[in-house]
Amino acid sequence: MGNCQAAEAATVVIQHPAGGKVERIYWSVSANEVMNSNPGHYVALVVASPASARRSKDSGAAAVKQQLKLLRPDDTLVLGQVYRLISFEDVLKEFAAKRCVKLGKLLKERNQAGRRLSSAKVEHDEVQHSLGSGGDGGGSSGGIPRHQGGGGGQWRPALQSISEIET
Question: What are the tens digits of pLDDT across the range 68-82?
Fold first, then answer.
């Protein structure tokens, strides 16, 4: 009386993209060996998303969202895990899509920050204008002219020229 399920658990399962072929290996193997035997493909570990797995347990749903984790060539494929071969083009497409999303978020954040900065600058200029015309003699104090205008919020000293005395 053999235990078929125990033998299945002690295999490395590799899913091929074309034709749905499933390869079973009964010993641990490096990702580099699998990549060399399947040129143009990367090896990825199939991982069930923790959030979707928790939801499926609660609701009894059978659909679990799977995520893929790319392996380095020096990683070892572990017995009992499921791996999938992914073509080089699919990896590039995924990275390009993620980069596009990140750039979109960055641009959106910059636009929002730019709007906040411009509204803060307008408020600052209005305050400076109301303080400058408040009757203190044109906004200067102690004979040193104040810096007025778009300095971007940086402080710049107002320097007076000093005559040099030659000896």
Answer: 888 899 999 988 889
